[in-house]
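re the bet — no i am not wrong, look at it urself. input seq straight from the record:
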Amino acid sequence: MPTHTPPTDRIPQTTDAPSGTDPWSPRLWGALIVLCAALFLDALDVSMVGVALPSIGADLKLSTSTLQWVVSGYVLGYGGLLLLGGRAADLLGRRRVFLIALAVFAGASLLGGVLDDGGLLIGARFLKGASAAFTAPAALSIITTTFPEGPARNKALSIFTTCGASGYSLGLVLSGLLTSLNWRCTFLMPVPVAVIALVFALRVLPKHAHERGDGGYDVLGAITGTAALLLLVFTVTEAQSVGWATARTIGSLVAVAVLLTAFLVIEQRTAHPLVRLGIFRNGAVARANSTAFLLMGSYAGFQFIIALYLQRTLHWSALQMGFGLLPAGALVALSATKMGAIVDRYGTGRLLPLGSLAMLIGYALFLRLGPHGTFLGLVLPTMLLLGIGFALFYPSVNIAATNGVADEEQGLASGLVNTAIQVGNALVLAVTTAVLTAGSHGGTSAHDQLNGYRPALVLVTVVALAGLLITAVGALLDRRRAGVHHPVPDYDYRRADSGAALKERV
């Protein structure tokens, strides 16, 4: 059997570093809780505003085309700046980047809750999404450089990412509850949580997260890569209103292609690239990012469909919808402390296909929707399957996307998977909206609306199927490798090494 040498030369010196079996210190738990709170808020904001949109539009007198930017503004800032956020965490210090971005997030949340102008509200949402683009990869890379790869990191990442999954799942639930009070509550609720997390972060975040990485600044890569992502998200979002075949949309897509080509050329030639393209030679990382793009995109599309269906067709109130979607979020939240052990036992190669399959079946079951759908017969089975699928999929895909990556590139790996998630959210949601609008022909009757929901749901289901196929290929490749090499789970040697590496660090 090949030997494995613990990479102690790449691991920051810290007495807080845990092993796979040693109990974690209260300070370490405190740091993890702070990072989880930040990710929960980042994910929550992606979906929480959805139910509040009609109230916002009525209160601020916003048109439908303007109102969509309350959601799109956040996604634009989040998805467009994630790569830059991940690289900034590696180069400027993860702790510093996390603290500054979390403070900006709290301020932008407060602004969003008190503003009365639609344009300023959208600007605050963009600023909030931009700050999340820095907190999310910084938090994830703090975890992956604090916990050694193997059981300790799997446990920490499963708790961390399940909190993120809970944010995505509970966003519509909390939105329904808060909107029943006042739509401004959906903006103001994150403020005290972010402030409390910031105060504790100053005390508990590990000292090694101060450290800056080696390397220069890829200014041209940052400009072209960020501009390409921003323009891509902007183009697909605007295409819903200006049309996909218009000169504006086509011209924007051509500009995106030019920027991406320039970015790839720069990354191949610069000494210190923003994205080291060789990271994608790691097949597991490439598959994890592809799967995150597809599955999270399908979930964003489904959330949009079910919110419209429950409110417009079944005439549910915001509060009813919040409780109706609660089972999925509750399952995800309850699984937070158990996913680490499950990942250790079964591995991401098995959990990713299972989670993807559960989500696919949930979408397929919802194709039975009709003008008189019921909670028990239609909504509950899909919510339970989505809760199970999301609980298995989301932590596993984040672990798969960062395993085997050097410490100095953990910010990059974290930024990549978060970028895949957010760009997937934006792109699949834009296409889903276009299909729904085309299917309903702009009609408002229950019959017209159902004619739009069904093809949109078929699209969501097909996207999820593509994600399932990628995870199935990954599981097959893992099984073949296990047959060629010694049939020992890939995390066992890390468990053995984690104690030795810890002694070296301490």
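see?? The chain has two domains: 25-217+272-483, 218-271. told u. also Residues 1-15, 486-506 have pLDDT under 50 and may be disordered. so pay up
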